[in-house]
Specification:
Length: 153
């Protein structure tokens, strides 16, 4: 099903304030509480709202270092891709893994305490990933902008 502008306003608010009460949400989007609740339930059941999560502070949790790792595989055979994807999903320090079009086959977003911790992650996990031909790591010096909010406008 498609969504209308009111649904989009609800989604925009929920992306920024996931813990907002239904009463506050309905007031913010100018809709009755019961109609707002029904719309949120429909957006959830249709999969527009996938989950509700808490966004944690990486610095306070001791993993302030972000590293982007470009990985090129020896081949792109289905069994190699599947084995790689299953193995990389088991590494707790990897936050994201993207299959790419371009020079790298995959790009990983990895968090670490510092460069020594990343060296440990590299040695214990990344070098053991199946099918890897080449790997290049780039350390983020500073996060200029970061959001989890998708454009729904």
């Amino acid at each position: 099903m498609s969504i209308d502008q009111l649904d989009r306003r609800i989604l925009a608010v929920l992306q920024k304030k996931g813990r907002i009460s239904n009463a506050e949400l309905s007031e913010t989007v100018n809709l009755s509480a019961s109609a707002c609740h029904r719309r949120v339930q429909r957006l959830e059941s249709e999969g527009y709202i996938r989950d509700y999560v808490a966004l944690l502070d990486a610095r306070k949790l001791g993993v302030p270092t972000t590293v982007f790792v470009e990985i090129t595989l020896q081949t792109q055979a289905d069994e190699v891709l599947d084995a790689f994807e299953k193995a990389v999903a088991r590494i707790p320090d990897v936050l994201e893994c993207h299959l790419m079009a371009g020079t790298a086959d995959y790009i990983l977003k990895v968090v670490a305490e510092n460069t020594d911790d990343f060296a440990r992650i590299h040695r214990q996990h990344l070098t053991r990933l199946p099918g890897v031909a080449q790997m290049q790591s780039s350390f983020a010096l500073r996060t200029v902008f970061k959001t989890t909010a998708l454009p729904v406008g």
